[in-house]
């Protein structure tokens, strides 16, 4: 059985062959490239777990190749081969994130030892690669951007730090959190979810957080939409994130063994500037930060996602014609993966043929997108209203102060208040 795949890049055919022989003898699969340009194409096509590249090459040299690879997949280790005269260059490259470098002529055992070290920090994320990748079976993805995210997630699973997952609604943040849980040492323990929007309007002393902790012990506690958590609950959450301590009563502190994962649909730095989110809580919970891309940023995944959705309900008996699949890949998807699933399920339910036509898909896309945009507008108005009310509460109804915090002039701010029917005098 061929082991992990390594991409080797060198414009010297003899050295390229020698490295390939060494790696194959060590049990690795090898892909060879004679230039940086060819290596970049092969990297995107074959997704190796590590790259070995010569530093000095015509055209795209090792520096430029590393910069391109690191921008697309910073968790894939790159080993640089260098002659004696270029050691300073190699050291500088290591400081920029290169995993390591070997000086030519190098010892074969030294090469294999460094590759083994690289493999140890380059997790397996291919869902078809056996039991070790079973943790991410709930995430359907083939794109490079998602593979890089899954590499980061797999490495994060091995630690026990809090995790902050950001991304638009419907993109799959909870699926990613559950995958991390499945890959972690807490996989057999509970995965408890709290929707932070549930805290709105609760009476003092009535906290969903207190009740959830009883079931989350030993496992994962996911705080969905943490940006909606009220200030009082943020204060109670902080010692739990920092020290696994939760104050459930004025005189009692419980020590809890759990791992916290939070999700957010908006950048928390703006909420911090507005005074709606604690900076200390953000720094405590964001020690590991992952970003779930919008579906429009990972269009290569759409065919695989559609195939998965169809198989879950209809097996191989149903499908979509190629033109229908093309229409799905061209859509804007404001509702992300959640919206894609909805469109596919509606298409299969309404189609009178085994292969759903493109005309039906396009009609449903128009209807779904209109609904999604209307929902987004409604959510935006609700957020704006809540923000203005909270701002006025914070400033005691002082419009000048509130407008300054919101970075609006008084005239614009009064127009915003009038649009939402808010009387600042009620907040004094």
Catalogue the unreliable spans. none
* Quaternary structure annotation: single chain
The CATH architecture term of the largest domain is 3-Layer(aba) Sandwich
Report helical residue fraction: 40-55%
Distance between the termini: 73 Å
In CATH, what is the homologous superfamily of the largest domain?
A: P-loop containing nucleotide triphosphate hydrolases
Q: Give a short account of the largest sheet.
A: 5 strands, parallel
Describe what you observe in this structure.
This protein has helices at 13-25, 36-46, 62-72, 87-95, 108-121, 144-157, 173-183, 208-216, 231-243, 268-273, 279-285, 302-314, 322-330, 336-350, 358-395, 399-405, 410-419, and strands spanning 5-9, 29-33, 50-54, 78-82, 100-103, 163-166, 191-195, 220-224, 245-249, 252-255, 259-264, 288-291, 319-320, 355-356. It contains 17 helices and 14 strands. The N and C termini lie far apart (73 Å). 49% of the residues lie in helices and 14% in strands. Strand 4 (78-82), helix 4 (87-95) and strand 5 form a beta-alpha-beta unit. The mean pLDDT is 86. The strands form four sheets. A five-stranded parallel β-sheet has the order 2-1-3-4-5, sandwiched between helices. A five-stranded parallel β-sheet has the order 7-8-11-6-12, with helices on both faces.
